[in-house]
Amino acid sequence: MVDKQKIETYNNLNHWQNFRLRLVGEGILVGVFSGCVVGFFRFALNYADAWREQLYNFLSGVSIIYVLGIIALFLCIAFVLSRLVAYEPLSAGSGIPQVKGNILGLYKTVWWRIILSKLLGGILGIGAGLSLGREGPAIQLGAMTGQGFSRFLGRTRMEERYLISSGAGAGLAAAFNAPLAGVIFTLEELHKNFSVVVLLPSLAAALTATIISRLFFGQNTIFLFPDMSRLPVQYFPYLALLGICLGLFGAFFNYCLIKSADFYKLSIFKNNFMRIALPLMVAIPLGFYLPQVLAGGNQLVDALVTMDFSLQVLLVLVVCKFVFTMLSYGCGVPGGFFLPMLVIGALTGNIIGSILVDVGLLESYYRIHVIIFAMAGFFSASVRAPITGIILIMEMTASFKHLVPLAIVAVFSYVVAELCHSKPIYDSLLQKALAKDKANAQTMEKKCTRNVIELSVESGSFIEGKMIKNIPWPEHTLLVDVKRGENDIVPSGDTKIIAGDYLYVLTDTENCQRVRELVEK
């Protein structure tokens, strides 16, 4: 089997154009399946949201006995969620760090178990009101659909990674009706390079998944913002201030999110059931008195546009949404923080915009603009993927006139977060997961050791300008192909590596990260 994989891999590299074209066709099919899976997930969450709203409306006018009934129901949900996480640990949390680890060869996954556990767990947790988003689960559902498609066709591990990436981008596109953001997320966050062989199938999958999604949910954007005029240039200096504030808050958000799991290590939490039960019990009073902070919260962003909240109310909302998100994500149930993060950014932008309006520095009409810009800035500070953030917010709000101010805020928030030495949140979560649970992280896959990985040589990396024979490759590592633009270079010891080369390296799985650091850092 290993020899067959090697032969097929070399055949793909030697027939590169045909391989890329085949990936486009496979990307379309992955997009169809991912769009259907994520579409079902969205449909179930919409139904759960409507059910939850009706439930709290009903309970507000009945006796306490019914409230005890919902407590019992939520405890049952906590038990089911604890069993699901125990059954498939890789379905816990956002799912995006697991996808990154899967692409890097750090996880050995059973795709169908993750899909089943993620679907059921996400529907129960988010449906019950936990402050979690659908985008992380959607990305992992799409990625596992891509892996299942690859396994069904018997593809090589190299090709499987491209299909996993395509499925992940399709999942984000289907979740938010945002095909371009799905593609850029795959390139900027998952692979951290703009390889054409990643771009083409990801674009095909994202476009196909978006079409499937729009067939079921229509063509409306996720956030319902009115058509707005461009921000006048005289207000641009305030964008720098907005970016600085968001960079600081984004770094704090990352710190708290990483530490949120530590809270559940306290001795009072004896098991996973007790950890999950706490945020579910907190969700009940919030459902009665502050339902806006439950679940993902995209309706809250819409409300910020149509309603004029006082500064005090905004502060209460952002604090409660922030704290409840930490409680919800830290307990480890299936669900992401992508959408809650955007909601927190929108609330922060509304607060800053309202202050600027109150002190006479900004016309009230442009307060909504600040909300939009703040979402991109907060995303950029936390995830450290500014291009994805800019395109995502433009697609989610249909604010295509505001590229320049979005970019200004995203860049300032990115730089400030870097100066705070805050690491990208998904990278941090992946490293923490690998350090926590070596049983699930297959960093030492002894029986499945050989993988071909694609790497882009970055300017200033260790190997730039070096001959292949002078590079200290890890043991059992072979450079099998070098692609420079549209040209193939047969590697030899005297071949000099330059920035922009794409290297295809055969190595042990345990050496993948070391090889990546040689090439990209």
Automatic annotation (TrEMBL):
Membrane topology: Multi-pass membrane protein
Gene Ontology biological process terms from the UniProt entry: potassium ion transport
Residue spans crossing the bilayer: 21-43, 55-81, 110-132, 162-187, 194-216, 236-255, 276-297, 309-330, 337-356, 368-393
Protein's name in the database: H(+)/Cl(-) exchange transporter ClcA
Entries under InterPro entries matching the protein: Cl-channel_core, ClC, RCK_C, RCK_C_sf
GO CC, any one term: plasma membrane
GO molecular function, one term: monoatomic cation transmembrane transporter activity
Organism: bioreactor metagenome
Coiled-coil regions listed: none
Domain annotation RCK C-terminal: ranges: 439-521
Gene from which this protein is expressed: clcA_7
Subcellular location: Membrane
Principal place of residence: membrane
Record keywords, A-Z: Chloride, Ion transport, Membrane, Transmembrane, Transmembrane helix, Transport
